[in-house]
Amino acid sequence: MAVMKSIELKTKKGKCISVLLIILLSIGAVIQFLPLLWMILATFKTEAELTSAIPHVFPANWSFKAYFEAFSKYHIMDNFSNTLIICASVVLLQVTNSAVAGYALSKLKPRSGEFLYMMFLGTMMFSGTALMFPLYIMMTQLGLIGSKLALILSSSVWAYSIVLFKSFFDNIPQELVEAASIDGASSLRIFVTMIIPLSKPVLAVNILNTFMAVYNDFLYPLMLLPNEKDWTVMMRLYMMDKLGTIPHNVIYVLMVAAVVPILIIYLFVQKNITEGVSTTGLKG
After folding, report:
1. Is the distance from CB of 234 to CB of 280 less than 8 angstroms?
2. Of 38, 40, 117, 264, whose Cβ has the fewest other Cβ atoms within 10 Å?
């Protein structure tokens, strides 16, 4: 929905407000982009320039040495591989589970469905930090500590996503489902051929949210993946910074590289993000 209607933009007052909004948004965009720009430029600076008492915006001598050192000496591609395997597995399982659960609660109306829905909402009252200790005990008993499967399973079902899918599916007319059922379509066929094609906005929102949450997670990988060979990108960043002996420009290289996958995912799903945010959860 637009901030101002087209008829308002034709008035003198509307034009002034429009110009003011554009100026304010432009200033805000520049301010938000500055930290990212500084981080990118820092990858081309020397350690002396980064630790200088007088900071310099642009490097005196542009150098790609930090990039070669980061990718050859510290093997960060292995950490990216671990992270992407975990993220892809969690997105596939979590989105599938949440979509099926949301569809069942919204359209199939199972017995005790309202009670189950309230149970899902109730789990959202607990923070992830409060669940870390019982989760660690459970994964220890299952013998999964040190396995990527521990992190994948612990992140594969989120009540938030189930609620989001159910709210979206509630907006799809029940008459469509009943008509398809009368024509002989099974519940699975209705879900795959009718519901999923109509759910691209909420799928895009869930995929992006899930990917970002798992990709940026630090505490759970730290707890469940003690072996260095299984470390994620965020764990590698933490360990490199904790050592205190790694050049700052190398750390900046890893920080820049860590942003790239999120930008790529966003570019793929941005077409549906705005629509998903504006329609998910609305009644009508």
Report:
1. no
2. 264
Residues 57 and 71 in one domain: no
How many Cβ atoms from other residues are within 10 Å of residue 147's Cβ?
A: 16
DSSP 228: G
**Three-class SS state of 284:** coil
Q: Which two tokens stand for residue 273?
A: 């993000």
Condensed to tens digits (0 to 9), the pLDDT of residues 13-66 reads 777 887 888 899 899 888 888 888 888 888 888 777 777 777 777 887 888 888
**Look-up of token digits 């759910």:** 199
pTM of the predicted structure, to 2 decimals: 0.78
Instruction: Give the residue numbers spanning the domain of 93.
Output: 67-279
| Same domain flag for 251 and 170 | yes
Residue 1 lies in a domain: no
CATH number at residue 162: 1.10.3720.10
pLDDT at 94: 92
